[in-house]
């Protein structure tokens, strides 16, 4: 008797003959127990075949969706675990270079220039437990408290609510002209073993574009946290010209942290120019994060002044790169008042 799917192109080979080794009756698939809705002789009618195809096509998209969601969840979990492991593995390198780096602590700073993108990359260990670091850095409001410690930031406000949800934005005013940089704020991962926060702004000062701040964190032990901070932006022709003017005037003689050579008397020669500026800014943001957590040990009403004092002490420690005049403190107080940040908050 002719097969039930004799007219089905999936049940025949290119010559029109039934495929060998293939059971063309869908009601007898190996590994499944079927309770036929119709007797076998009725199944072989065209009507019953159409019913089966309708039922099969209805279940297939839902099944595929479940499989895709399960695979996506598993891949996301594996990726997050790998990223946390990568941060912990970086600590071994920091610990090995601790005695030989210029910082005398588990801290590394690198910079790069790829095309028109400049990047500063900081890896460090801070003496603060991860749960507190996670709670603070997953809040947009905390980031304004951090960013205004940077001497070039002249204002900071959180758009939307301040609960740390994905849709928040952070509006930053940069430089004496207070040019706006509208950062989107995204908590890409917020787990008990890994935090990933990303701030991105399409336009920045001096014609720069594509500003990105990314902060990753994972616990090292019960009292210490590993941080990875990346700060990058893009310089087009107009931005390069403006930056050249700055480096030849106000920024003249300023350097970064990477040693690129030595003077005849052995003194180090530090990277300058665009990479030097990128390293200074990346370091300023890292020190602002560190100063923020140092301030949490005092009463809320005193935290802002503690942050200022701590950051200023850090800048004095790295005076060749980050020296600031005492006016820095008064300027930061004014910026905080204008940003409505110099008051205690939960």
Describe this structure in words.
The chain is α+β, with helices and mostly antiparallel strands and 346 residues long. 41% of the residues lie in helices and 23% in strands. It is built from 9 helices and 10 strands. It has helices at residues 40-43, 46-97, 130-137, 140-147, 237-248, 273-295, 300-317, 319-322, 327-338, and strands at 107-114, 117-126, 153-159, 169-174, 179-190, 195-203, 209-219, 225-234, 259-262, 268-270. An 8-stranded antiparallel sheet has the order 1-2-8-7-6-5-4-3, sandwiched between helices. It has a two-stranded antiparallel ribbon with strand order 9-10. Strand 9 (259-262) and strand 10 form a beta hairpin. The radius of gyration is 30 Å and the shape is globular. It starts with 39 loop residues before the first helix and ends in an 8-residue tail after the last helix. Mean pLDDT is 79; it is low at 1-44, 54-60, 63-79 and 162-166.
List the helices and strands and how they pair.
Blueprint: H1 40-43, H2 46-97, E1 107-114, E2 117-126, H3 130-137, H4 140-147, E3 153-159, E4 169-174, E5 179-190, E6 195-203, E7 209-219, E8 225-234, H5 237-248, E9 259-262, E10 268-270, H6 273-295, H7 300-317, H8 319-322, H9 327-338
Antiparallel strand pairs: 1-2, 2-8, 3-4, 4-5, 5-6, 6-7, 7-8, 9-10
Helix pairs in contact: 6-7
């Amino acid at each position: 008797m002719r097969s039930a799917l004799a007219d089905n192109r999936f049940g025949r080979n290119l010559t029109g003959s039934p495929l060998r080794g293939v059971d063309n009756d869908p009601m007898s698939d190996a590994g499944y127990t079927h309770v036929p809705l119709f007797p076998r002789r009725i199944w072989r009618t065209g009507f019953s075949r159409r019913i089966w195809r309708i039922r099969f096509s209805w279940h297939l998209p839902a099944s595929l969706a479940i499989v895709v969601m399960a695979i996506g969840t598993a891949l996301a979990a594996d990726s997050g675990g790998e990223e946390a492991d990568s941060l912990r593995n970086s600590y071994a390198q920091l610990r090995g270079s601790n005695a030989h780096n210029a910082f005398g602590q588990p801290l590394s700073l690198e910079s790069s220039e790829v095309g028109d993108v400049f990047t500063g990359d900081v890896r460090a260990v801070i003496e603060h437990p991860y749960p507190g670091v996670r709670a603070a850095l997953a809040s947009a409001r905390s980031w304004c408290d951090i960013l205004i410690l940077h001497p070039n930031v002249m204002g900071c406000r959180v758009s939307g609510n301040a609960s740390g949800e994905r849709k928040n934005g952070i509006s930053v005013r940069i430089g004496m002209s207070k040019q706006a940089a509208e950062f989107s704020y995204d908590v890409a991962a917020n787990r008990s073993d890994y935090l990933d926060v990303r701030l991105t702004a399409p336009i920045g000062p001096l014609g720069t574009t594509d500003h990105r701040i990314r902060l990753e964190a994972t616990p090292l032990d019960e009292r210490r946290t590993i941080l990875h901070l990346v700060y990058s932006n893009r310089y087009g022709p107009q931005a390069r010209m403006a930056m050249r003017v700055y480096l030849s005037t106000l920024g003249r003689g300023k350097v970064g942290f990477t040693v690129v050579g030595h003077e005849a008397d052995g003194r180090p020669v530090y990277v300058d120019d665009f990479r030097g500026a990128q390293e200074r800014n990346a370091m300023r943001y890292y020190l602002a994060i560190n100063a923020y957590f140092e301030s949490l040990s005092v009463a809320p009403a005193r935290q802002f002044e503690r942050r200022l004092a701590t950051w200023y002490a850090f800048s004095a420690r790295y005076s060749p790169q980050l020296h600031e005049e005492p006016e820095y403190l008064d300027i930061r107080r004014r910026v905080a008042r204008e940003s409505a940040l110099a008051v205690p908050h939960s």
